[in-house]
Every structure is written in C-alpha cells, then in structure tokens.
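Sharing in case it's useful to others searching the archive later.

Someone asked me privately for the predicted structure of Branched-chain-amino-acid aminotransferase, so I'm posting the question and my answer publicly. Question first, with the sequence:
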Amino acid sequence: MSIKIQPEAIANLRGFELPERLGFGTVMAPVMFRARYEDGCWSSGELVPYAPLMLDPAAKVLHYAQSCFEGLKAYRNGSGAALFRPERNAARMQHSAERLCMPPVPESLFMEGVRTVTAYCANLIPANSGESLYLRPFLIGTQPDLSVTASSAYDFYVIASPSAAYHPGNMRLWIEREDSRAAVGGTGDSKVGGNYAASLQSIARLKERGYDQSLWLSPSNRQTVDELSGMNFFAVMDGVLHTPALNGSILEGVTRDSLLTLAREMDIEVHERDIDIDDLLALVRSGTCSEAFACGTAAIVSPISELGDDNGNYKLNSAPGPVAEKLRAALLDIQEGRSEDRFGWIQRV
Ligand code: COI
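And my answer, the predicted structure tokens:
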C-alpha cells in the first residue's frame, strides 16, 4: 500500500520549533499517521497534520472503551534515527486489540506508521541523552452505535511527542492494598486504556500523601507484587535481580525484557518469580534488598527510594543503586548508538 503525504503536514513541519525544555508527552509533533478500517479492510495510511479528531458522540470508544495503545521511542543514533524493538510493540498491540475484539493492526501497517512519523519528524528528536521522540500508536473503535458489541469501524493513529523521561529522579511508591488495576482473567496483560483509568484514583490518593506512583499487587492474592501503573518492578536482593513473573495481570514490558537480557549478559543472576510484598518489606528493612527500580519505555529506568503503606515507610539503601545505573547506561548506550547492537534490537529509519 502506498502512503499519502498531505502537503499541509509538510507545511506544519516547516514551521515547528522544539522548545528548549521538554517534559513527558506535553509537546506534540505537528503531524500524525492515520489509517482507517471499514468493511473488513484497512485503508492505506496517510501522514496528516496533527489536529483534533472528529468522532461521533456515539462512537464505541467513548462508551465501551474499545481503545488500546503502544509506547515506543525514536532515538538519535549516529547520523540518523532509530527505533528500538518496534516489532515487539506491533505484536503486543495485536494482542491488546484481540483482547478487546478489535481488528489487529497488521505488522506492516504498524511499521509503516511508526517509520513514517519517525522519518518526517527526525529533526524533532531531541539531542540530549535520555530524551527522544516518544511514539504513541493507538487504535479506537469509531462506529456510532450504543449496543454492546464490537465496533465495525476503527481508526489507527500514530502521534509523536519529543519528550524527556517520564519520571526523572527517584520515586516514592505507595503500596496499593485497597484497589486493583486489573482483574483476574481481565486485561492486565494488554495495553488498554481501561487499565490506566482504573489506576487514576489510586494515583490521586497517593499524591495527596506525597508519593509518586502506586505499586499494584496481584488481583488474585492481594499479596504479591504486580507492577506500577505504567512500569515494571525490579528489586535487587543479595546481589540477585528479581522481577515479578508474568502472570496474566502484568504487562510484558519491552524494557523489562531488554533489562533481563542485559543483566544476564552482565552475569547478574536473574529471578522471575512471585514477590511477596511483606517479605520484600522485611528484606528492605534488614538491608538485604539493597535497591529497587521501575522500568518502561517512557520511564527508562527509574530508581525507587521508598515504599510506603499504612504501617509506615521503608527506605531503600541506595537510589539510584549500582545495578539500576549499570542497566540504564547499557540500555541507553544501545538505543543511542554508543555501543554495538549485539542483540539486533535497533531498526534504522
Ligand atoms: C510507556 O512506557 O510507553 C507507557 O505507556 C507508560 C505510560 C506513560 C502510560
């Protein structure tokens, strides 16, 4: 399929300037990629100006949350731009779409979307290490119809935001013992908007208490650690790296998988297992758990300085700890082209 480039999109790019200071996801690139699904077929994609969407107020996405998304980044890498493991995002988006009874975006269309936006926005990739062009592909059900059935029409978009890391600096985590972000047999391992909506009330509560992020427990036992709202969790105990095993309610993070690979390469012992929250707190108190951190595409690697709940605060010995620092540096070195792409993770654009 050949992609159409609207002249207004090119005009928008010409007039765009990167602001000096970037946060996360607040500055939007002035173009976006769009493809439509109707009558069982995908249209060819087009690059269009970034603009508000026209949606019928009865569109399924607005009522029944037929909405899934991805997060990946384009980096400055040598003299060009590079994507990091985008095929993993394409596959995960297909998994999320299937869970919500939406047509999976074909890998070729997904790649065309992220590669086109990256190519046309290459000048908008920030130059500082740790900053990048954050790409947000998303798929929504657009059919105007209030019956609780899957939409017959969908839009796939890729928008982009020149961004810094999601949470620079150390994080204080609140252990969420009241609510669950996902249900047993639900959508926890899919990247769907509803999971994030379910986390917002907890985030509002913990901010009032001076914390940064919720640490979610498994919905099946309310006792073992699952993940943060948009990041996976790691802890170092006696020099061994531990992360919760994938259990159906944890999102399978691309960064999580990449850090596990890098840790094994560094001869760090790695355990993917259930982590009981009260055992973890006892190990933090005794100093056996020396560091903890979270990771994700947006966050990269974010050190955790403290865990808290109604019974008190538990401070980690070091934040950032040495393992988090080594892994973060190794990951960024590959993404930003300073070290060899020895795992075949980089796709040049
Ligand atoms: C990502 O890391 O790409 C995410 O989607 C996390 C978040 C900002 C929701």
